[in-house]
Amino acid sequence: MGTKTITLMDDAYERLKTLKSAEESFSDIVRRLTSEKGSILQFAGAWKDLSEKEGDELKKKILEGRKASSRVEELKRKLKDHVA
Predict the structure, then answer these.
(1) pTM for the full predicted model
(2) pLDDT of the residue at 74
(3) Which pLDDT belongs to residue 61?
(4) How far does the chain reach from its first CA to its final CA, in angstroms?
(5) Does 43 map to a domain?
(6) Domain span including residue 19
(7) What is the band of 71 on the pLDDT scale with cuts at 50, 70, 90?
(8) Contact present, 23 and 10 (Cβ < 8 Å)
(9) Residue 56: what pLDDT?
(10) Residue 59 and residue 71: Cα distance in Å, rounded?
(11) What's 10's DSSP letter?
(12) What is the pLDDT of residues 23-70, one digit of tens each?
């Protein structure tokens, strides 16, 4: 695969650099940031065949997952504060 040289303003370079992980090259970060993502519209109607009961159960599970995720993040912050 060939290479190209591009010019970036200093501020653009710094922004790109902050998004790059230690193991990523700048080519990797550009690929990651520009990869095609599906449109949320592709999911429109995905749950149209769910019964009201199934929909309520799904909503309940989603809310439980969000709550658990929030709790994990809270514990991570507390641990980080405790260690620091």
Answers:
(1) 0.41
(2) 86
(3) 93
(4) 45
(5) no
(6) 10-34+50-83
(7) confident
(8) no
(9) 92
(10) 18
(11) H
(12) 999 999 898 888 877 777 777 888 889 899 998 999 999 999 888 888
Q: CA dihedral defined by 15, 20, 25, 27, rounded to 10 degrees?
A: -50
Cα–Cα distance between 76 and 84 in angstroms, integer? 12
Q: Find the length of the chain.
A: 84
CB atoms within 10 A of CB 6: 6
Give the Cα separation of 43 and 58 in Å (integer): 15
Helix (H, G, I), strand (E, B) or coil at 44: coil
> Which residues touch 28 (CB under 8 Å, ≥6 apart)?
20
Domain count, the chain: 1
- Domain assignment of residue 1, yes or no: no
Looking at residue 49, the DSSP 8-state letter turns out to be T
Structure tokens at 78: 């507390």
